[in-house]
UniProtKB/TrEMBL annotation:
It is an enzyme of class 5 (isomerase). This is phosphoglucomutase (alpha-D-glucose-1,6-bisphosphate-dependent). The keyword Metal-binding applies. Its EC number is 5.4.2.2. It comes from Gossypium darwinii. Keywords: Carbohydrate metabolism, Glucose metabolism, Isomerase, Magnesium, Metal-binding, Phosphoprotein. GO terms for molecular function: metal ion binding; phosphoglucomutase activity; phosphomannomutase activity. The keyword Iron does not apply.
Length: 540
């Protein structure tokens, strides 16, 4: 293909602070103009430089000899900027001399999977994989997740890639930038391979029955993200009826609801679909299918703590006594369910799906067996599935349970799942209030928002220590977690933003207010902290 470069194809280049695009172990930015106050940060040249930075990082990591060309698979979700960014990523990878394999519309878990599949006919395994997604963020955003066969890249790797990208981009600034068509691009339908593996997993768990879900009515809500494949490519081959499934078509404007299993409107939509269609089960995915949740036939939501309890029950049947690693905002009721009812161990760690997964891997490495790492957000990863946080695989574990119940003559309802979470104590009140730090307030006295937030937490911890009504959690990895008045609260610093989220759970509104008042009294002297959400909550 001839290299195309013309005056019209040369975008103007602005100076860019690449490190500001880091969002933990992902890269995120604005890819579409039109929202006031949100200028485009993921331009084509920026994207190309990031992809070239990943290629350089991968070449260093893999250290292959010159006789073998590395290859990188690229997939995207349903966002409207997907095609433009896929082209720019392809150019960046190809410019470094690597082979590009485009998958088109794909899920994040499938991209990681492509680094593990061994089948030269479909150009697998990929040495590296890039997923173009910004999860459930608004339509104008986009971003990148990166994988090798070791799993998703961590924060330090992302920083390294962005530093390399900054240097490549400064080269563009110095020498000029032109759009050159990529020559070494191949296209593969990898999702067909990935979905067929999911189908095989359910058949195998059911004793190699061809249609183990025959008679089940299961509705899927993909929220117009990338998860629409699950109805026709996974459930139907297994014999399930999927009529009433909704929002399966990819639409990057997300016209129906945010594709997010934590979003109230999204959960209401799938619950309504289950009830309207008298379905046995409802399944909902986020945009890029690395998170999921379910709804039983009565319309009961199986997300957040309930989903963790359900997955824990399934995993602890298979691996008695194993450790379940979760994020920090899980409930006390979940701990007692995992430890007293199921006989497992609950290891409550930090927020951030990568933190939770890495902690489970670390525990295994020091001899403490863990088979499940799962966040309240719906990110869940199993040891048996290479510690990949795969929303579709989590749902396959639920389907396996349904299929085996049917095979043993227990019918086709979702009661088998609901029964597994019987005995989970749930709080009457559960709220999350966000206390923002005003970074321009003089009370910061030159400190970063992170240092200021740490000072708030330190002060809260000290004031709790002298309060006989409250008890600090004996083991805690994030923020200040305290029990009292029959409930608990956790104040922590957000992973990325100048915000201190406060979670409160209690047996009554009155008890929740008492916990809130304790926090309000302890933090009132911090003038840069906007406590309006908390003040409103505790008002009589």
């Amino acid at each position: 293909m001839a290299a195309a470069s013309s005056a019209t194809a040369i975008p103007s280049l602005d100076k860019v602070d690449f490190l500001k695009l880091q969002n933990g172990s992902d890269i995120r930015g604005v890819a579409v103009s039109g929202v006031e106050g949100e200028p485009v940060s993921l331009t084509e040249p920026v994207t190309e430089a990031i992809a070239a930075g990943f290629a350089a990082w991968l070449l260093d990591k893999k250290k292959v000899d010159a006789s073998r060309k590395l290859r990188v698979s690229i997939g995207h979700d349903s966002r409207i900027s997907a095609q433009k960014l896929q082209d720019a990523v392809s150019r960046g990878i190809a410019s470094a001399g690597l082979d590009v394999v485009q998958y088109g519309l794909a899920s994040t878990p499938a991209m990681f999977n492509s680094t593990l599949t061994e089948d030269e006919a479909i150009l697998c395994p990929a040495d590296g994989a890039i997923m173009i997604t910004a999860s459930h963020l608004p339509y104008n955003r986009n971003g990148f997740k990166f994988f090798t066969n070791d799993g998703g890249l961590g924060k330090n790797d992302i920083k390294d890639i962005l530093e390399r990208a900054a240097s490549i981009y400064s080269n563009f600034l110095a020498k000029g930038y032109s759009v050159k068509a990529s020559e070494s691009v191949k296209k593969i339908d990898y999702m067909a391979v990935y979905t067929s593996d999911l189908v095989k997993a359910v058949r195998k768990a059911a004793g190699n029955i061809e249609k183990p879900l025959e008679g089940f009515h299961i509705v899927v809500d993909a929220g117009n993200g990338a998860g629409g494949f699950f109805a026709a490519k996974v459930l139907e081959p297994l014999g399930a009826i999927t009529s009433g499934s909704q929002f399966l078509e990819p639409d990057g404007m997300f016209p129906n609801h945010i594709p997010n299993p934590e979003d109230k409107a999204a959960m209401k939509a799938i619950t309504q679909a289950v009830l309207d269609n008298k379905a046995n089960l409802g399944i909902i995915f986020d945009t890029d299918v690395d998170r999921s949740a379910a709804v039983d036939s009565t319309g009961r939501e199986l997300n957040r703590n309930r989903l963790i309890a359900l997955m824990s029950a399934i995993v602890l049947e298979e691996h008695p006594g194993t450790t379940i690693v979760t994020d920090s905002v899980t409930s006390d009721g979940l701990t007692s369910f995992i430890e007293k009812k199921l006989g497992g161990k609950h290891h409550r760690f930090k927020r951030g799906y990568k933190n939770v997964i890495d902690e489970a891997i670390r525990l295994n490495s020091i001899g403490e067996e863990s088979h499940l790492a799962i966040e309240t957000s719906g990110h869940g990863a199993l040891k048996e599935n290479h510690w990949l946080d795969d929303g579709a695989y989590l749902m396959v574990k639920l389907l396996n349970k349904l299929a085996s119940a049917r095979a043993s003559g227990k019918g086709v309802g979702s009661k088998v799942l609901t029964d597994l979470v019987e005995g989970l104590e749930e709080p009457a009140i559960a709220v999350e209030l966000r206390l923002k730090i005003n970074q321009n307030h003089p009370d910061l006295k030159g400190r970063s928002f992170r240092e200021y937030g740490e000072a708030v937490l330190q002060h809260l911890g000290n004031s709790i220590a002298s309060n006989p009504k409250l008890q600090k959690a004996p083991v805690n990895y994030e923020g200040v977690r305290v029990s009292g008045f029959g409930g608990w609260f956790l104040l922590r610093l957000s992973l990325h933003d100048p915000v201190l989220p406060l979670n409160i759970e209690a047996p009554s509104h009155e008890d929740a207010v008492k916990l809130g008042l304790e926090v309000a009294a302890a933090v009132k002297e911090f003038q840069a902290l906007d406590t309006s959400a908390l003040d409103k909550f505790v008002q009589p």
